[in-house]
Q: What sequence folds into this?
């Protein structure tokens, strides 16, 4: 999965433009949904493991938010967050935001989220890419 922030770079005489995906709250929700799905697939199967990977140049994914009690606070995936338990939208989330995403995500394992530097393509804002890899399986 990748989630991008706007970036324009020139590489080898070619202009590359990345569009801004926005909606980090929904992006985090769907990433965590993949972790939940991988847990269901790997449960009780020692020979099957899964890995959910998110690649982004949007620091709003890996940096700890400064605001508390946002409607998506349970879905945060910043550096060093411990991911486990029931994750849900807060009560004041709008119907449009949670449409088709009403059910909580339940993470049965415990995962300490560790973002890794992937690449720096530019010194401009959003020129640095990081990735998060969550390894899922019985004997992690």
A:
């Amino acid at each position: 999965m990748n989630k991008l922030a706007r970036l324009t770079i020139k590489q080898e005489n070619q202009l590359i433009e990345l569009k801004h995906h926005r909606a980090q709250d929904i992006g985090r929700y769907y990433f965590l949904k993949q972790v939940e799905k991988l847990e269901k697939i790997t449960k009780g199967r020692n020979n099957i493991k899964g890995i959910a990977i998110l690649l982004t140049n949007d620091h709003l994914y890996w940096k700890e938010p400064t605001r508390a009690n946002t409607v998506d606070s349970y879905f945060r995936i910043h550096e060093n967050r411990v991911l486990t338990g029931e994750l849900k939208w807060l009560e004041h989330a709008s119907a449009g935001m949670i449409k088709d995403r009403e059910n909580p995500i339940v993470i049965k394992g415990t995962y300490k989220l560790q973002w890794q530097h992937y690449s720096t393509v530019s010194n401009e804002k959003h020129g640095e890419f990081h990735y998060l890899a969550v390894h899922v399986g019985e004997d992690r």
Notes: The longest strand covers residues 128-136. Residues 26 and 97 are 8 Å apart (CA to CA). The longest helix spans residues 24-42.
